[in-house]
UniProtKB/TrEMBL annotation:
This is Uncharacterized protein. InterPro entries: Ig-like_fold, SPAG17. It comes from the Eukaryota. Pfam families: PapD-like. Signal peptide: none annotated. GO terms for biological process: axonemal central apparatus assembly. GO terms for cellular component: axonemal central apparatus.
Length: 214
């Protein structure tokens, strides 16, 4: 059954169900699935049948789509904050339980995650104003602290300051004011106790009245 897919993008186009995509590009999907073994195709077919049923084993009223786009955004790369480790590392009192100690032995030291890694405002008319959001999440079992350097004009940043409990996140509202025509690119530095994050921001400012924010 070549109509199976889990959702995603192929040839630059988003798709959720292979059946719809196969109607438009049958040759491409035949090439992709034709290179798979019978065992792989059988596993894909079993997964598709499993997705058609709910937890009680009854057919679903609505088909299951792919992973929401918000969960497929790339995360920003993290660079270790060596200065904090040198000054505060010995005095820190992290949560110590059997679960956290096991996580440490497996090398899980990341405290925060930032998504997306890049914000692109698209084409913005000269004099326009546009805002987009990023999210900083505490993925560690400990209370986490962060500090963000205020960006320079024409960028501004709004967020709720303060320490983040484990599993919580803060929404960062980045606002851009188009005051000069041309390409714009800037970085917002986010410092946490263990890592540094860089959120890159870009836009293209157009001077014509027909420019649009996207």
């Amino acid at each position: 059954d070549l109509s199976y897919s889990t959702g995603g993008s192929y040839l630059g186009q988003e798709y959720e169900t292979g059946g719809e995509y196969m109607e438009q590009y049958p040759g491409e999907l035949e090439t992709v699935y034709g290179s798979m073994t019978d065992e792989t195709l059988a596993k894909l077919q079993a997964r598709r049948e499993a997705r058609a049923l709910d937890v009680t084993g009854k057919p679903r009223k609505a088909p299951v789509t792919g992973v929401p786009r918000v969960h497929r955004q790339p995360e920003a790369a993290a660079e270790p904050n060596w200065r904090y480790h040198e000054i505060e590392g010995e005095a820190a009192r992290p949560l110590r339980t059997s679960a956290t100690e096991l996580l440490k032995t497996r090398g899980m030291r990341k405290q925060f995650s930032l998504s997306p890694a890049h914000i692109h405002f698209g084409r913005v008319q000269l004099g326009g104003r546009i805002s987009k959001f990023a999210k900083l999440s505490n993925i560690s079992p400990d209370l986490g602290r962060f500090f963000i350097r205020p960006p320079n004009h024409p960028l501004s940043l709004k967020y709720k300051p303060g320490a983040l409990p484990a599993g919580m996140g803060v929404r960062l509202e980045v606002t851009f004011v188009a005051d000069q025509p041309g390409d714009f690119c800037e970085e917002i530095i986010i410092n946490t106790e263990h890592h540094h994050f860089v959120l890159t921001v870009s836009a293209k400012v157009v001077g014509e009245a027909g420019g649009e924010a996207g």
